[in-house]
Design brief:
two-stranded antiparallel sheet; 2 domains; alpha+beta; elongated; about 230 residues; about 40% helix; 6 helices
């Protein structure tokens, strides 16, 4: 997996220059861990490793080739981790180096047999997310990523439809599904559908006939009785 990790500019008050970008490539030594979040201590596991770094031709972007563990790779593929950022510091020569890459946006997955890493002195490590960084995909990877995303969205709609069955006034379920579908297309994620599914799943009893429906039924019965009398 190839990701853009840093770009020149000011990011949350931290300025990254072209020299910083090039120094991170030059000082890279192949033991940079991939973590979940930036809560750093010596008991945290590595969810993957940065295999290599490269600088763009214009010197403005640092990209990295990452090898993720199976669980994190699956979680990323299904959209649980949509953002990432880096932690960087300066060595004894005052050159910037990449300390770690952190995935953000969800609770860490339960993973067995991960190697515990030593983070060392992290007092001088700064963390930031460079705006505009993106996932770099080959054509095959892009096709697979899009396919997984569509599959996840369709699954979310199916679960919502099942959860709402019998718990929403007749004829409104299609409107609900259409609304959730539009939200997913506009935002690119299924959080709205998942929230609605959770809400309807918590409803134990089906929605009873509303007052308007009862009045309509009563009127129909009255009309039938009048017709019979005539």
């Amino acid at each position: 997996m190839k990701l853009e990790l840093a770009k020149t500019g000011n990011h949350n008050g931290i300025t990254i220059t072209e020299d910083d970008i090039r120094e991170m490539e030059q000082t890279f030594c192949g033991d940079v861990p991939v973590t979940i979040g930036h809560e750093m201590d010596d008991s945290m596991p590595a969810y993957g490793w940065v295999m290599s770094l490269e600088v763009s031709d214009d010197g403005q972007t640092l990209a990295g080739e990452l090898e993720l563990g199976d669980e994190l790779a699956e979680s990323f593929g299904t959209g649980k981790y949509k953002n990432w950022s880096i932690g960087a510091g300066r060595n004894d020569d005052e050159k910037m180096y990449l300390h770690h890459v952190a995935f953000l946006g969800a609770v860490p997955p339960m993973i067995k047999d991960l190697k515990v890493i030593e983070m060392g002195d992290v007092s001088d490590i700064v963390t930031f997310t460079a705006a505009g960084c993106s996932l770099i995909l080959s054509d095959a990877e892009a096709s697979e990523y899009i396919s997984l995303k569509k599959e996840k969205m369709q699954s979310a709609l199916t679960k919502l439809s099942d959860a709402a069955a019998g718990k929403i006034p007749f004829g409104m379920r299609e409107h609900l599904i259409r609304f959730a579908d539009e939200q997913m297309r506009n935002t690119g994620d299924s959080s709205t559908a998942e929230l609605l599914t959770e809400i309807f799943s918590s409803v134990k009893s089906p929605v009873k006939e509303g007052l308007s429906a009862a009045i309509t039924t009563k009127r129909a019965d009255t009309g039938i009785n009048l017709f019979r009398k005539i």
